[in-house]
Known about the structure:
Blueprint: E1 25-26, E2 29-30, H1 51-57, E3 65-67, E4 72-73, E5 76-77, E6 83-85, E7 94-96, E8 127-131, E9 136-141, E10 144-145, E11 151-153, E12 155-160, H2 189-194, E13 201-205, E14 233-236, H3 250-258, E15 261-266, E16 271-273, H4 282-285, E17 296-299, E18 327-332, E19 336-337, E20 341-343, E21 346-350, E22 355-361, E23 380-382, E24 387-397, E25 406-412, E26 426-431, E27 435-436, E28 440-442, E29 444-448, E30 453-459, E31 479-481, E32 486-496, E33 505-511
Parallel strand pairs: 3-16, 6-8, 7-11, 13-15, 19-25, 27-33
Antiparallel strand pairs: 1-2, 4-5, 8-9, 9-12, 10-11, 14-15, 14-17, 18-21, 20-23, 22-24, 24-25, 26-29, 28-31, 30-32, 32-33
Amino acid sequence: MKITRTVVLVLCLISLSSLAYGAANIGGCQIFPSDSIYNTPIDTLPVDAKSATYINAMSPNIGVHPDFGAGMWNNSNIGMPYNLVRSTTPRKTVSFYYPDESDPGPYPIPDNPLIEGQPNATGDRHIIMIDIDNCIEYDLYDSHQAADGSWNAGSGAIFDLKTNGPLRTAGWTSANAAGTPILAGLVTYEEFAAGSINHVIAMTTGWSQNMYLWPARHYAGGSDTSYPPMGQHFRLKASFDSTSLPAYVQPIVTALKKYGAMVVDNGVSFFISGVHDDRWDNDQLAYLGYVKASDFEAVDVSSLTTDPNSAQAKQNGGTTTDSEAPRVTAFALPATSSSQTVPITTFIATDNVGVTGYIVSETPTKPSPSAAWNKTAPTTYTFPTTGSKTLYAFAKDAAGNVSDAALAKTTVSTGSGGTADTSSPVITTFSLPETSTSLTASVTLTAKDNVSVAGYLLTESPQAPTKKSKGWQTKKPGTYTFSSRGTHTLYAYVRDAAGNISAAASAQTTISIANGGHGGSRYGRR
């Protein structure tokens, strides 16, 4: 296809260094590791068997539309903004309409945050925040601030930009319908101006089927399988002749050929996502409309999967294995303990793919990958004797890589042989608001113990729990979500590391407004 017009050159200098492959960088944070599926080329992968079916369902003659640009359209800013925040930015509790699939937070919402669609934000009202001190992404969908300053949102998700996983719980949405991070698919003006976009670009489809593909975790479609699922990748065919398109759009065209586009939401077919920026030239971006859906093909990326719960992708067409070991980033014990069973107050480990095992030991020797690893971080350790003790923590990944040791020290002060801890914790404060307009009500809960509190349980059942009852949490809960409106009685229990459980404390609240379900978000369209 030839287009008769004058070719417009990009008015920027492109350095050779900017052409090197690498993930996008925002605020000094790399947007996921270089071997993430979001940052991996798909130009040599096989065509999906249903490619023609999907393209036909999405209308072959529809053109690519940049859902980003400069200025405003229909009284709203064009594209997705983001907010750079710090570790010191106050964290705020958000009440979710769909708390069962949301990360509870809290979220670093700045004063007067940039919201998608401002200044007259309607639509999806996304708020994207990047903690540039810790490189954490916080995404909110359908965000609203109440008159009292509190925040409500449809759903929320938190992503560690330094790692490939684990992915969200299977079946969970995020702030988009695919359950994926929004930043991973946004075109920024900075990378565009540098001449090289080295990651997948998010796209929407007019409709989707009720299925999702790796790395997506959620669907929001119907039973018609002629439409693509969430997570489906498309790429611009290598045979597409882009020489008649202006130089301005060539970085985007090149990215669509090499890294492709991934379906993350329902909306309008082949709308691609980017950051709002007044430096964009909307007239030049409009030339992307000459690229039609029929110029694309669906791609099968399944050969790149290393672990279905990780976004790490095999490189070079599927040959690279994981050789990076996890790191124990935080490990702590109390300074003293009056019981030989000592609570592990902190055990945090990270990995480029995902941590699959945890071990604590009194020896600094690195354990074998085939040792008896715990699937979750242990919360207690029982020493056989009293005295000054050093405990070592290790983590491993699915590939068998084992971390170096992290250590913590404590002094066990019970008598010879140890005295069993038989003292139960005591709940000192437990309350709910008298009424709530949300199914998720705030909880005030404090407790004390002669050693330390190791678990918390909130339940609507008056039956006393045991140490093995479901629902125990290691962190003190700040909210509780009821399943229906009306007057409810909630019971609180706490336990210590020895398994002693407190007496029940109870509180009542009346839920005056019921909330509905969530079928997946949709980007606002213009």
